[in-house]
């Protein structure tokens, strides 16, 4: 290990000490929230038992959804291993809520790339567009909502679902804070009270003390192989919000007339509960790793977003290289610093659901888990590495030292 880089990282740790204290305070608040929910919902060892087949009368599954409802302060929840990803949960939600002739409006610009074929931005015979569901979008202005255009659009058009993606995805914008989300929801409800506001909350859970239902959202969707899985849940996703809307989503996931009453948990209940219990601490570790990386890479001369002093909205750290080879080298360095498949040579490839080739480092215990340390990015200008996760801060720090050492060697 390069002693100079290790010393440099220790210097960066001193610079971010105050930011770390802020993160620790939020983690303590959210840990108390989770612990209180487990106690209030009377989680017992019996909740760990799973079901097979249809999954009738799954006591543990019902308790998990009760805990999620409590934590998010929502009317109902749907937490299922049958969701294979956050994208799948968003897809099921949209198909559950929208009908032919309805309009879906995104007010945070174009959604994440994997939704292009779901919506019909890219042609697909199974898309929402193929069912005659109209899609429109309003782009952000200087990393905030275009409040005037949103108001005018709603005055002149009936909108069924309004979508907000809080995290930046593969865009160059900033992620959206709950303060901004609260302000725009207040505007939406004044103009068109019955419009359903759906939040893509991936990467954002437990980063702050509040969640989107608390600022007026109708539905919130996220993945269990990101923040709330705590690195323990092997798959799954959640939807929380209004009871009537959860019922529609559940009947699209399973069967009309059966909805939440079916869906075997296959002995995964303990992992979902344990992952949720650990989640505030794992999110804390991820945020500290991101803040340290931001400070270090900025001092190395790269453009970063957010900066280490900025407010954190999600666990994602952007490093903007403006150079294809540097993006590839950095991603390779993260892979080599991972616990699993550290000898793998990652290369850009055409991943399903993406327009551009993507390079991805994910030497993780769960395939694709981005609450574990990972890094990815599309091979397109300005060549941004999107780094996120780390199960512990210590492993994140070590990986950063190793990656910077590798990047230094490649530059030389």
How does this model look, in words?
It is built from eleven helices and twelve strands. Helix 7 (178-191) links the parallel strand 4 (161-165) and strand 5 (196-200). The protein has a seven-stranded mixed sheet with strand order 1-7-6-5-4-2-3, with helices on both faces. Strands 8-9-12-11-10 form a five-stranded antiparallel sheet, with helices on one face. The model has no long low-confidence stretch (mean pLDDT 96). The longest helix has 31 residues, at 269-299. It has helices at 3-15, 17-40, 59-72, 86-97, 116-119, 147-156, 178-191, 243-253, 269-299, 324-336, 393-411, and strands spanning 76-80, 103-106, 134-137, 161-165, 196-200, 219-223, 237-241, 303-305, 317-320, 358-361, 374-378, 384-388. Helix 2 (17-40) runs antiparallel to helix 9 (269-299). Helices cover 40% and strands 13% of the residues. It has 412 residues and is an alpha/beta fold.
List the helices and strands and how they pair.
Layout: H1 3-15, H2 17-40, H3 59-72, E1 76-80, H4 86-97, E2 103-106, H5 116-119, E3 134-137, H6 147-156, E4 161-165, H7 178-191, E5 196-200, E6 219-223, E7 237-241, H8 243-253, H9 269-299, E8 303-305, E9 317-320, H10 324-336, E10 358-361, E11 374-378, E12 384-388, H11 393-411
Parallel strand pairs: 2-3, 2-4, 4-5, 5-6
Antiparallel strand pairs: 1-7, 6-7, 8-9, 9-12, 10-11, 11-12
Helix pairs in contact: 2-3, 2-9, 4-8, 6-7, 9-11, 10-11
């Amino acid at each position: 290990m390069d002693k100079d880089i290790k010393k440099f990282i220790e210097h960066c740790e001193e610079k971010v000490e105050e930011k770390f204290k802020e993160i620790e305070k939020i983690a303590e608040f959210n840990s108390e929230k989770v612990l209180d929910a487990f106690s209030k919902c009377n989680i017992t060892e019996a909740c760990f038992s799973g079901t097979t087949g249809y999954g009738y009368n799954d006591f543990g599954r019902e308790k998990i959804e009760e805990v999620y409802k409590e934590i998010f302060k929502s009317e109902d929840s749907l937490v299922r291993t049958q969701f294979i990803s956050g994208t799948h949960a968003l897809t099921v939600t949209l198909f559950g809520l929208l009908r032919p002739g309805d309009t879906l409006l995104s007010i945070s610009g174009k959604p994440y790339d994997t939704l292009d074929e779901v919506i019909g931005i890219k042609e697909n015979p199974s898309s929402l567009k193929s069912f005659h569901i109209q899609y429109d979008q309003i782009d952000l202005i200087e990393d905030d909502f275009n409040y005037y255009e949103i108001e005018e659009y709603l005055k002149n058009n009936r909108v069924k679902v309004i979508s907000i993606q809080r995290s930046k995805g593969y865009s160059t914008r900033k992620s959206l804070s709950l303060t901004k989300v609260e302000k725009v929801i207040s505007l939406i409800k004044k103009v068109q009270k019955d419009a359903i506001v759906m939040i893509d909350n991936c990467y954002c859970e437990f980063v702050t003390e509040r969640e989107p239902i608390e600022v007026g959202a109708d539905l919130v969707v996220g993945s269990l192989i990101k923040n709330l899985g705590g690195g323990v849940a092997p798959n799954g996703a959640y939807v929380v919000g209004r009871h009537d809307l959860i019922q529609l989503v559940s009947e699209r996931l399973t069967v009309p007339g059966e909805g939440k009453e079916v869906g075997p948990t296959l002995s995964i209940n303990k992992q979902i509960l344990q992952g949720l219990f650990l989640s505030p601490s794992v999110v804390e570790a991820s945020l500290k790793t991101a803040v340290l990386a931001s400070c270090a890479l900025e001092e190395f001369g790269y453009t970063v977003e957010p900066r280490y002093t900025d407010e954190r909205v999600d666990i994602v750290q952007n490093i903007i290289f403006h150079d294809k080879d540097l993006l590839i080298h950095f991603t390779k360095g993260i892979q080599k610093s991972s616990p699993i498949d550290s000898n793998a040579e990652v290369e850009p490839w055409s991943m399903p659901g993406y327009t551009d080739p993507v390079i991805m480092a994910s030497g993780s215990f769960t395939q694709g888990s981005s609450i574990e340390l990972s890094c990815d990015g599309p091979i397109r200008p300005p060549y941004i590495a999107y780094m996120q996760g780390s199960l512990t801060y210590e492993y994140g720090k070590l990986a950063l030292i190793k990656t910077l050492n590798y990047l230094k060697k490649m530059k030389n």
